[in-house]
Write a structure and sequence with these properties.
By secondary structure, the chain is α/β, with parallel strands linked by helices. It is built from 8 helices and 11 strands.
């Protein structure tokens, strides 16, 4: 029987991924599907940490562009990530998956504080850990939080689950002829301003050689496929040039 390609992963989920067919908030069918796939991957012996965004509820950048103070808007966005984390924790708990939410903002009534050693301990015991509230600092999105937490816990890979099936030279939703990259380097992503993750996250990953795999969450079973090493999505790593 084939073995997983990774022992410990950091899965980055955007808040928008939880929208599904809903205009706002959380599509219960989507979050239950994510929970099912997470349980399946955990049963393979993979240690799973998750960073989740909050864009389905509130986006700090958008609010700031409409005149709200950016720091305040970002803190509101962090609270939205906690709401999403609790919803995913509930779905996992219902499936018998022991889960811990750790928040970068202290709110002990609903989540543990982020403590690196405790997070690693949970992972080693087979628990899923969901990191909420980004880095706890305004002016940073949850992308740098994902890269940072991946490095802190010693993840083998950072998995970026998104609405498209990889990294393209142009927006595939606007350009049907857009070229997809199977592999691309961190430097090329930055130089070409490709919309993979924000520049801070890519720079962090490059400086610490943290592999990123970008893939579609819309195809059921893709999380498991990536874990098993199937060639889907786009791999972002060192100096590569092949499309």
């Amino acid at each position: 029987m084939a073995k997983p390609s990774y022992r410990r992963i950091l899965l980055k989920l955007s808040g928008e991924a939880l929208l599904g067919n809903e205009p706002y908030g959380i599509d219960s069918a989507v979050i239950e599907e994510i929970a099912d796939e997470t349980r399946e991957v955990q049963q393979l012996g993979v240690e799973i940490a998750i960073v989740i965004g909050g864009g389905n509820i509130f986006r700090g950048v958008s609010a700031a562009s409409r005149g709200m103070d950016r720091a305040t808007a970002d803190y509101m966005g962090m609270l939205a990530t906690v709401m999403n984390a609790l919803a995913l924790q509930q779905a996992l708990d219902k499936r018998g998956v022991i889960t811990r939410v750790q928040s970068a903002i202290d709110m002990k009534e609903v989540a543990e504080p982020y403590i690196r050693g405790r997070a690693i301990g949970h992972l080693e015991k087979g628990r899923v850990v969901i990191f909420a509230a980004g880095t706890g600092n305004p002016f940073f999105t949850t992308d740098p939080a994902a890269a940072l937490r991946a490095m802190e816990i010693g993840a083998d890979v950072l998995l970026k689950a998104t609405k498209v099936d990889g990294v393209y030279a142009t927006d595939p939703e606007k350009d049907p002829t857009a070229v997809k990259y199977n592999r691309i380097s961190y430097t090329e992503v930055l130089q070409k301003s490709l919309k993979v993750m924000d520049a801070t996250a890519i720079s962090l990953a490059r400086d610490h050689n943290m592999r990123i795999v970008v893939f579609s969450l819309r195809q059921p079973g893709n999380i498991r496929r990536v874990i098993m090493g199937e060639p889907i999505g786009t791999v972002v790593e060192g100096a590569v040039h092949a499309k």
